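Homework help thread (please don't just give me the answer)

Our assignment gives two proteins as sequence + structure token strings and asks us to describe the second one. The first is just a warm-up. Here they are:
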Amino acid sequence: MEKQTDPSSPKKLRPASPSFVKMAIDYAPLIVFFLAYKLTGFLIGTIVFMVSMVAAIAVSRYKLGRVSPTLWISFVLIMFFGGLTIWFHDPHFIQLKPTIIYSFFAVMLLGGRLFKKPMLKYIMEDAFEGVTEKGWLILTLNWGGFFLVMALLNEYIRTHFSFDSWLSLKIWGAMILSALFGFANMPVLIKNGLKTGIDKD
């Protein structure tokens, strides 16, 4: 006899997907920084930003079982430039962090592509299962160029706009541009073996 479930019993919540958790970990500290800055100013905002990065490391370790290299790099740079910002009472230091991290990834990816090494594969292979070596090489070149443009864009905005404008563009603008560029690269992923979970007859 088939067992019937009691409609009055509480339903189990489906756990959040790893990709959603990773996205939340990546962007939550920035959003917290934005809110803290608006409420308290850049000094307290920077301290809150640094604390939120420690929390992000802990959550990543607990929820995902590991901390990604990109998160570790962001953590180190935020601790360093955040410390300089607090010590010198100068917000320009925290503004340099995106330029450095974008430049680092641009050099790593474009340099790897120059030597036919799909460096992006070593960072994001778990997220895109089944992608071929050719696909990873294309993505490495594409994202390397994207990070180079983002580094130059951050420097332009940092030197030509106010801190408020820079922060708003850094959070919301960078988030939108990254999402759009990611969607634009989906055909490359699908064409080069990405497993979508949809079986063809």
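The one we have to describe:
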Amino acid sequence: MSFHFQKLPKFKNLRGKTKHNGWYKVYSPSVKTDIAIHHSLTKTGNSAAFANYHVGTLGWPEVAYHFVILKDGTIEWNHDLGVLSYHVGDSNKFSVGICLVGDFRTEEPTDEQKLSLYLLHEALKKDLPNYKCTRGHNEFPGYAWKQCPVFNYKAVIAKKPVAQASKPAPKPKEDDDMLEKAIVINAFPDFAIAEVLAARIKAPIYTRSALPAGKVAKELYVVGGTKDGLQADKIVALTGKDRFEVAENVAKFLK
């Protein structure tokens, strides 16, 4: 499935490429109704740096934000839209997180960041079928105390900012925009079995119902269910007549 935001200039796909220790749960993009705006509270940084902190220090499975916007306007894409990542507490399941690098208590976002935020926000409103509203981190329940995102994001997303045009980054080839490996499970009860495999082969887990249409990875590992309708260069079926046999086949594969 192709999204409007993938066609933006300075777009970089980092899904599955930063530090992780396990994977977040994945739902359909249809559960996402809100967009959450954050600032990093740091003068510098990127998705890789934030992943090191979120995973290595906080013990989270992956980096918190679906998107990170660097100071030069580069948009780093970290998660599929349906991923339940940790960034707004009890509102995580229905929110997509965008973080702009910077400490906006003492500085403003760059013009490039403002333009990228506007363009990304416009694209996400088209890509999220049940989009309702956009809020700052401190506007979500339980976060009124939080100084985030501080800057006037409402003014930025309301009107296209004027920024110095820069040369767009070259569009990656289709294969470069794809995961190397992914795991498909039939339903959430299969998650515990698939989690062991995910840790070994370093691949995200999708439920079949939340799997985007088309080819999402070069290699697919099917844990439970069938491989009917799936697309990949290589498909490994680790299935069985029940979950005990599925677990046994996964264990044999890992030997």
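TA reply:
I won't write it for you, but here's a hint about the kind of observation we're looking for: Residues 111-127 form the longest helix (17 residues).
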